[in-house]
Every structure is written in C-alpha cells, then in structure tokens.
Amino acid sequence: MIRFFGHILTSVGSKVLVALSGLALAGFVVFHMLGNLQLFEGPEALNTYAAFLRDMPILLWTARVGLLGIAGLHIGLAVRLAVLNRRARPVGYAVREYRRASLSSRTMAVTGSLLLLFILFHLLHLTAGWVDTSFPDRLDLRGHRDVFGKVVHAFQNPLFVAVYLAGQAVLGLHLSHALSSSLQTLGVEHPLLDRLFRGAGPLVAVLVVVGNAAIILAVAFGLVRA
C-alpha cells in the first residue's frame, strides 16, 4: 500500500491520475450535455429525465460524491504537478517558444481555474437556486419538478446568457487540450493515429460547446419557450 501511494506521488503517477480523472470528468460533461438536450423535446421529456435521476437517491448521491472526489483529485494533482514543474525550472525562459503549442494548451491553468468558478456558479444557480430566487420551485402537470421552466426562465436573462456562454468558451478551451493530452499521457497513441488523437480533444470540445450553447441560445432567442 505504501509503495502504491509512493508511486502516485511521483510525477509520472500523478500525470496518469490527472489523465484518468480528466477523462472521467470529460465523460460526465458529455453525458450531462446529452441529457440537457432533451430540452428540445419539451417540458415532459426534460422533467421526466430529471425526476428519473432524483428517484434514485443512492445512485445520484453516489455519483455526486464520486464526481466531487474525482474533481478534487484532478485539481489537487494538477496543482501539485504545476508546482513541481515550477520548482524544477525556477528560472523562466527569456523567450518562450509557442510554435506547436495551442492557445488551449498554454492556458490550461487559467481555464481550469475559471472553469472551477463557473461550475460553482452553475451549481449555486440552477441546482441550489441560490443565485436567482425569482423562479419558485414548482411542479409540472405530472408532479415532477419543473426543471424545464427553470432553465427557460434562467436563459431569458441576458446576464445569465452571457455568463453561461463565457463558461462554454472556457470549457471548450480546457476540454480541447485536456482530452488529447490525457490520451497521450496514457500512451494511447500510434504514429498512424497521432492526428486522430490530437483531433479527438478539439472535436469533443466543439460538440459539447455547440450542444450546450444551442440550449442557451434557443431559449434566449425565443425558439424554446415555457
């Protein structure tokens, strides 16, 4: 057991865990986006989906605690690796070369920090209902919580639209590099498939951002109404 934790605390072990936890979080982001797209099917579909999740409290809270643990592990180890890298190279380069580095790869620390703030805002807003108390919790005709109405109410506010669209831009930048680098860290690369793995991150990032932004803008422009 001591040897196991000793391996985790090495730079290589930490990078592997950051990659694995990052892939798990990316999988949740995709799943979350697909579930939210049921907004386009109408109130019954989205509210029934939300009720289905709430009707399994053990599974729901297990998933929530698990995601919280994975996120904490991911953030903690990522910060630790950044500190170790800085200590290993205390004197910065006089001139930085960014020939192959993309914008997303150069801003991982910044986008990661902003993404954490956005997630906290999202939880306090649409999950806890603390940010906007103008929409009371109510039930639909089938006795389910009106999640559909809450989402529509939120994105009729231009301020929330701007915040969430900015959050999607940050998510896209972070996800784009995170997925590709995670695959490389885990050794999932081959000379013939190198382009495929490098393109996997940007592709998934674009799909997630487009899916989430479509929900926000459809409500903002009145294409979806309560």
Summarize the topology.
Blueprint: H1 2-8, H2 11-36, H3 43-54, H4 57-88, H5 103-106, H6 108-127, H7 147-154, H8 158-185, H9 194-220
Helix pairs in contact: 2-4, 2-8, 2-9, 6-8, 8-9
On the 0 to 100 scale, the average pLDDT is: 84
Give the total of beta strands: 0
Q: What count of structural domains?
A: 1
Structural class: mainly alpha
Instruction: Quote the beta fraction.
Output: under 5%
The residue fraction in helices comes out at over 70%
Q: Can you summarize the main beta sheet?
A: none
Low-confidence stretches: 92-99
Find the CATH topology.
3 helical TM bundles of succinate and fumarate reductases
Quickly count the helices: 9
Second-tier CATH architecture = Up-down Bundle
Give helix and strand order, one letter per element, not per position.
HHHHHHHHH
Give the termini separation: 55 Å
CATH class: Mainly Alpha
Radius of gyration: 20 Å
Shape summary = elongated
Give structural attributes:
73% helix, 226 residues, 3 helical TM bundles of succinate and fumarate reductases
Task: Give a nutshell description of this structure.
The protein has 226 residues and is mostly helical. The chain is built from nine helices and no strands. α2 packs across α4 (57-88), α6 packs across α8 and α8 (158-185) runs antiparallel to α9 (194-220).
